[in-house]
Amino acid sequence: KAGVTQTPRYLIKTRGQQVTLSCSPISGHRSVSWYQQTPGQGLQFLFEYFSETQRNKGNFPGRFSGRQFSNSRSEMNVSTLELGDSALYLCASTPGTGAYEQYFGPGTRLTVT
Amino acid sequence: SQQGEEDPQALSIQEGENATMNCSYKTSINNLQWYRQNSGRGLVHLILIRSNEREKHSGRLRVTLDTSKKSSSLLITASRAADTASYFCAPWTNTGGFKTIFGAGTRLFVKA
């Protein structure tokens, strides 16, 4: 099976812009989670989607949003980018029920200038 | 889900030695997982131990779980330079879905 894929892998944006990141889970996986990783804050949970519904949410401002499509692919959007949004954004997928191992993608490295 | 706290924060050993890292958590769990992150392979699931298990092995990895002390340990035997990575524990409680709160991890450096 192909692993979790994320696009793009690298992105440079300017403050105030918005960005959309994409995640394609492993085939058959219905749960997709998003994480932000920075040197200062470590790995922080953003949100989790299951069957197109947000099931869990972390403590991030409303500028961070996401969605999941019927084919389980997920996107996350960050509006009005700030310098502090520079980070590695990881997504992870799981079958969603009865399985607990998360399979992570390689991440999208976002740099905000 | 809840946050695990790994200890020590950093560990430096020689190739061939064993490495032990610990994880503590606060409330009851259904299972606990360990993940590894290095620059080459990203964040990878290593092993899962269920709350009714006390010990589990996978290759050179040995995980123990003590639910009475709310702690787990990960032992890597005969370490290799390729084991150099950050290791995270992820205690999982069934609260509906996933909300994994990772700790700061243990940074392991294996010297060749």
Structure overview:
The complex is a heterodimer of chains A (113) and B (112). Chain A has 113 residues and is mainly beta. In chain A, 0% of the residues lie in helices and 53% in strands. In chain A, strands 2, 4, 5, 6, 9, 10 and 11 form a 7-stranded mixed beta sheet that branches. Chain A is globular. Chain B has 112 residues and is mostly beta strands. Chain B has no helices and 10 strands. In chain B, the strands form 2 sheets. Chain B has a 5-stranded antiparallel beta sheet, with no helix packed on it. The relative contact order of chain B is 0.36. The mean pLDDT of chain B is 92. At the A-B interface, strand 4, strand 5, strand 9 and strand 10 of A face strand 4, strand 5 and strand 9 of B.
Number of strands of chain B: 10
Number of helical segments with 4 or more residues of chain B? 0
Q: What portion of residues of chain A is helical?
A: under 10%
Radius of gyration of chain A: 13 Å
Name the overall outline of chain A: globular
Distance between the termini of chain A: 37 Å
Which structural class do the helices and strands of chain A define? Answer: mainly beta
Could you name the ranges of chain A where pLDDT drops below 50 across 5 or more consecutive residues?
none
- Largest sheet descriptor of chain B: 5 strands, antiparallel
**Spans of at least 5 consecutive residues with low confidence of chain B:** none
Summing up helix and strand content along with how strands pair, one would put the structural category of chain B as mainly beta
- Average pLDDT figure of chain A: 94
Rg for CA atoms of chain B? 13 Å
Write down the overall mean pLDDT of chain B.
Answer: 92
Helix content of chain B: under 10%
Oligomeric state of the chains?
heterodimer
What is the ordering of alpha helices and beta strands of chain B? EEEEEEEEEE
Mass-distribution shape of chain B: globular
Strand % of chain A is: over 45%
Q: Report the span from N to C terminus of chain B.
A: 37 Å
